[in-house]
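call fold(seq) -> C-alpha cells
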Amino acid sequence: MAVQIPAVDYLVLGDQPHLQAWRCVACSAAYFDRRNACARCFATSFSRSPLATEGVITAFTRVERGAKQPFTSVVVDLGEGVTVKANLRGMDDPAQIKPETKVRLYTFVAGVDDEGTEAVAFAFEPVGHSEVVGA
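ret:
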C-alpha cells in the first residue's frame, strides 16, 4: 500500500477519515489553524477535537474558468459552530443544489510524488451518493 499524507494538517486519514479543529479550552471556539490565543476570549489553551463527517450546505457557487472543468465550491456547516469550505462532488447540475442539502466528507488522492507518496485531499458529496472514486 502506498504511503498517504493529508493535503492539509486538519485532515485525519485512516479507517475513518475526518477533519479536526483546535478548540479553545475556555470557550470552545474552533480553529483549523494553530493559534497562540483565542480570537473570541483570548485564552491560550487549545485541544484537538474531531469534527462531524456530515453536515449541510449553507452556501455555494459554481466556478467556471475557460476550458477547465467547472466545479462547485460549498460552505458546509458541520455543527458546533464549525463551517468549512470545500468542493462538492456528485452533483453537476447547480439546480439540484439547495441550502441545507446534506453532505458527507469524501477523501481522494489529489496527487502522487516521485516516490509514490499520495497526497490525500477532501471534498464533500451528497449523503446517499454511492459512487466510490479515489482513496
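Residues 4-17+52-126 form one domain.
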